[in-house]
Amino acid sequence: MNKNEKMELFDIDAQLDAKFGKKGTASRAEAEERAYAFFTGQMIEDVRKNAHLTQQELAERIGTNKSYISRMEHGLIDPKVSTLYRIASALGMTIELKPL
């Protein structure tokens, strides 16, 4: 950006409200759940790839099938906590829960 260009500021909360509804509404909660599932899937995919494992290899390590791993990585399903622990263990990682 050159010095003559102006940065335009915008209110992200207003944009989210317009697209998904106000915080606390059912439509906003559904959108947030989809976003969490997508984010979780992306993290799993990144860690799996860094471990140089295929979806099939990870599936075998946690006792499921490749299709389940694919759906999870694409954010189509949200894995249970127990599944996340199995995935972390299969990848030589741990999950830490701590207060904000």
Helix/strand layout:
Elements: H1 12-20, H2 26-50, H3 55-62, H4 66-73, H5 81-90
Helix pairs in contact: 3-4
What is the helix fraction of residues, given as a range? 55-70%
Question: Oligomeric form of this entry?
Answer: single chain
Number of domains: 1
Number of helices: 5
CATH class: Mainly Alpha
Structural commentary:
This protein is mainly alpha-helical and 100 residues long. It contains five helices and no strands. The protein has a single domain, classed as lambda repressor-like DNA-binding domains (434 Repressor (Amino-terminal Domain), Orthogonal Bundle), CATH 1.10.260.40.
Q: Brief overview, please?
A:
This protein is mainly alpha-helical and 100 residues long. Helix content is 60%, strand content 0%.
Question: What are the key terms here?
Answer:
100 residues, mainly alpha, 434 Repressor (Amino-terminal Domain), 5 helices
